[in-house]
Write a structure and sequence with these properties.
Elements: H1 2-6, H2 27-37, H3 39-45, H4 48-75, H5 81-149, H6 162-168, H7 171-174, H8 176-179, H9 183-239, H10 241-247, H11 252-261, H12 266-281, E1 286-292, H13 294-300, H14 307-324, H15 329-340, E2 346-353, E3 359-367, E4 372-380, H16 418-425, H17 434-437, H18 442-447, H19 465-496, E5 518-524, H20 527-532, H21 537-541, E6 550-558, E7 561-569, E8 579-585, E9 589-591, H22 596-606, H23 621-638, E10 657-658, E11 672-674, E12 679-681
Parallel strand pairs: 10-12
Antiparallel strand pairs: 1-2, 2-3, 3-4, 5-6, 6-7, 7-8, 8-9, 11-12
Helix pairs in contact: 3-5, 4-5, 12-19, 22-23
Pfam family, one: FmiP_Thoc5
Main location: nucleus
Subcellular location: Nucleus
């Protein structure tokens, strides 16, 4: 080892076989050397697999040489030094080969990375070009969609048909040779013709207005003539009274009624006269009569005889009675209340007969001290009805005529002065006595010619014939409509309580032929129970549910799904539709507050109710709404996505044909039924 360490290392020389000497190289030789000695160029010429095989062979040779050197050193023979040096030189040559292979590997790695980077840049450039092209495509698609969905103002104008256009329009406007081949020119020509027609109609409208003004002036002249004629007719009628008495008119019953009518108070008299006149002129099925004691009525208007003597005698009697017995304060208040609420002995009865021989009996009373009128009702049917449990309030006197006009529930007195009279005798409100006295509806006061304005004070309210006449026809129609609607509901409730939703043949096209969901319960509920339901809060806050309305609960089932429907029935049904609030119990509780599709189901019956009116006057609206609820419940359940975590078949297989199961980000379901195609679509 000492001899090996003393030896100097020889300088490394890179040799080339057959190459010229360094001093004699020219420029071409230098380029050739650069080509031969450039390892980067050599990498392209060498085979990586062969280099790998060379690397393995070199490593094996190194292992072998190291093992031989170790073996020679372990023998400790001095003659082996030359062999060790020879093997050491061979090992150094192999190390140089490994270094060169290492450099070639690093050069290959660098070139591979550079090639990968270049390829990645090309891919990124192509990807960027692709994104730009996709964005341009999307932009062009949006522009195309805008162009296709563009709606011009002329589309809202109802133009005449093409046949009528070519038949009536002049050739200079229609231009058949051009417009028949070009739809755009055809539309422009039709618009020109529409403009011409509207100009003509505008001129005709001005002419009609001028004629109207002329006719109005003629009417005013004739009115003045008729108004001047009225006093003359009155004088003639007055002069003919002796002749009428002499001839004895044959209308005995009418004459008796008119004789009794003289003793009616002014409001009842106005009602009697106007109702009789309307019955004779417009409604032969309206019967008016007067009931009550005529003698008591006459006694009310007899002048007192010897008033001073009576007053003195009454004072003496009062002194004697006070000495004998002093009435208590409660008895005095009761007597004062009875006197305050005293009715006139006579009353007017009005019987309204319908086409099906059902009769609405109205009895009108007049409270003399309160100066208001009241009415009591009774219904007589041609056929005896079986009263369902839920129909108990339909024909009851308290709710039958409630809100005949909006807001007129008949529980408060319409006369503002009555409240001060009530305070004197301890009456809190008139609603405690309506069962005995009748309901003081506002329309009852108007039929009697009474009007109590709230915005301006009025000391004395008198009966007005013109007020009664202006409200008579509308009120009679409303009364007859109310009776018919309540009788129709009465009949429908009998079917609903048995789980049958009656649908007439005229309304069959509104629903599919097969509806699986069924009504299993229909019951009336009080207002307090309705107000406690959590899913009716929106209806209450909107002021659409009052204590004068009727409330019902419907239960619709299909399989494990149960749909509860809280129904608000306005007294003005069917002019005012019922309002439904829904709650679906299926995989949790679903209401309009947490499920947009439940809100859409409510909209189908509450907003789109005009489709369900059926034949006029629309008494089948409620049953059609319930049938639509069953229909939309089927659609809701059948279009619900199947839970893949649950084994077995889908609980509600799809039986309804739908164009699209869901739409939009809210996943709205198709609830609109299209007849006669028979499929469901979105609104």
């Amino acid at each position: 080892m000492s001899s090996d360490s003393s030896k100097k290392r020889k300088p490394k020389v890179i040799r080339t076989d057959g190459g010229p000497q360094e001093g004699k190289r020219g420029k071409a030789d230098a380029d050739q050397d650069a080509r031969y000695y450039s390892e980067e160029g050599e990498v392209d010429l060498r085979d990586p697999i062969k280099d790998y095989e060379l690397y393995k062979e070199t490593c094996q040779e190194l292992q072998r040489l190291m093992a031989e050197i170790q073996e020679l050193k372990s023998k400790g023979v001095k003659d082996n030094a030359s062999e060790i040096d020879e093997r050491r030189i061979q090992s150094c040559v192999h190390f140089m080969t490994l270094k060169k292979l290492n450099r070639l590997a690093h050069i290959r790695l660098k070139k591979g990375r550079d090639q990968t980077h270049e390829a990645k840049q090309k891919v990124d450039a192509y990807h960027l070009q692709l994104q730009n092209l996709l964005y341009e495509v999307m932009h062009l698609q949006k522009e195309i969609t805008k162009c296709l969905e563009f709606k011009s103002k002329h589309e809202e104008i109802e133009l005449v048909s093409l046949e009528e256009f070519y038949r009536e329009a002049p050739p200079e406007i229609s231009r058949p040779a051009i417009t028949l081949a070009e739809p755009h020119q055809q539309t422009l020509a039709r618009l020109d013709w529409e403009l011409e027609q509207r100009k003509r109609l505008a001129e005709k409208y001005k002419e009609c207005l001028a004629n109207k003004e002329k006719i109005l002036k003629e009417i005013e002249v004739k009115k003045e003539y008729l108004s001047s004629l009225q006093p003359r007719l009155n004088s003639i009628m007055q002069a003919s009274l002796p002749v009428q008495e002499y001839l004895f008119m044959p209308f005995d019953q009418a004459h008796k009624q008119y004789e009794i009518a003289r003793h009616l108070p002014p409001p009842l008299y106005v009602l009697f006269v106007q109702a009789s006149a309307y019955g004779q002129a417009c409604d032969k099925k309206l019967v008016v009569a007067i009931e009550g004691s005529v003698e008591e009525a006459k006694a009310l208007y007899k002048p007192p005889e010897d008033s001073q003597d009576d007053e003195s005698d009454s004072d003496a009697e009062e002194e004697q009675t006070t000495k004998r017995r002093r009435p208590t304060l409660g008895v005095q208040l009761d007597d004062k209340r009875k006197e305050m609420l005293k009715r006139h002995p006579l009353s007017v009865t009005v019987d309204l007969k319908c086409k099906d021989e059902n009769v609405l009996h109205l009895t009108f009373y007049y409270l003399m001290n309160l100066n208001v009128m009241t009415v009591k009702t009774k219904v007589t049917t041609a056929v005896e009805l079986t009263t369902p449990i839920s129909a108990g309030d339909l024909l009851s006197p308290d709710s039958l005529l409630s809100c005949l006009y909006p807001g007129d529930h008949g529980k408060k007195t319409p006369n503002p002065a009555n409240q001060f009279q009530f305070d004197k005798v301890g009456i809190v409100t008139l609603s405690d006595y309506v069962t005995e006295l009748g309901h003081p509806y506002v329309w009852v006061q108007k039929l009697g010619g009474l009007h109590f304005p709230k915005d301006q004070p009025q000391h004395m309210v008198t009966a007005d014939n013109s007020l009664s006449a202006s409200h008579m026809e509308m009120t009679v129609k409303l009364l007859r409509t109310r009776l018919q609607s309540r009788l129709a509901l009465h009949k429908q409730f009998a079917s609903l309580e048995h789980g049958v939703v009656p649908v007439s043949s005229e309304c069959q096209h509104l629903f599919p032929s097969k509806i699986v969901s069924r009504l299993v319960k229909w019951a009336a509920i009080p207002y307090e129970d309705y107000a406690e339901l959590p899913y009716t809060r929106d209806v209450l806050e909107a002021g659409l549910a009052e204590d004068t309305h009727l409330y019902y609960m419907a239960l619709i089932e299909r399989g494990t799904a149960k749909l509860q429907a809280a129904v608000v029935l306005n007294p003005g049904y069917s002019t005012l539709p019922p309002i439904f609030s829904l709650c679906l119990n299926w995989k949790g509780e679903r209401t309009s507050s947490n499920d947009d599709n439940i809100r859409a189901m409510e909209s189908e019956v509450n907003v789109s109710y005009k489709e369900l009116w059926g034949p006029k006057p629309g008494y089948q609206l409620l049953t059609n709404q319930l049938q639509r609820l069953c229909m939309v419940l089927d659609v809701y359940l059948e279009t619900e996505s199947h839970d893949t975590s649950v084994e077995g078949p889908k609980e509600f297989p799809q039986e309804k044909m739908c164009l699209r199961l869901v739409r939009g980000p809210t996943r709205m379901k198709p609830f609109k039924f299209n007849y006669p195609q028979g499929f469901f679509s979105h609104r």
